[in-house]
Specification:
Blueprint lengths: L1 H20 L3 E3 L4 H21 L1 H7 L1 H6 L4 H19 L4 E3 L2 H22 L4
Antiparallel strand pairs: 1-2
Helix pairs in contact: 1-2, 1-6, 2-5, 5-6
Length: about 120
């Protein structure tokens, strides 16, 4: 349980930074407290999307992994972030990713920040 909470908070921080850096990613809302709650809920949605859908997409795109030497991972991560935006919209969360290139850059930033924070905070999985 501790690992799940830590991963969610790490993803929330990474999503927040991506929303600050990338023009096509918006995290709107009212007060700072509302934004913090929104980004934590978006991180939960992102975690569910990555846990449930990403393995299926990776399995179906196995030939592309071999053909591109794994570079298709960047595209899959972008699609997972875009799907998170779509799901967040359906859940009335104030998180939006506008376009594939914003999703690609945002997914790259989220991956790097999540990796770095996991290293620093000692995520044991």
């Amino acid at each position: 349980m501790k690992s799940f909470v830590l991963k969610t908070l790490i993803n929330a921080a990474a999503i927040w930074v991506a929303a600050l850096i990338v023009d096509g990613i918006t995290l709107s809302g009212g007060s700072t407290g509302h934004k913090v709650l929104t980004v934590i809920l978006v991180a939960l949605v992102f975690g569910v999307v990555n846990w449930l859908i990403k393995p299926i997409v990776k399995l179906l795109s196995l030939p592309l992994f071999i053909l591109t030497l794994g570079l298709i991972t960047f595209v899959i991560n972008a699609l997972m972030l875009w799907l998170t935006s779509w799901a967040s919209d359906r859940l009335n969360l104030d998180f939006h990713v506008q376009g594939f290139w914003a999703a690609l850059l945002g997914a790259l930033i989220i991956s790097i920040i999540s990796w770095g924070l996991s290293l620093v905070l000692g995520d044991d999985d």
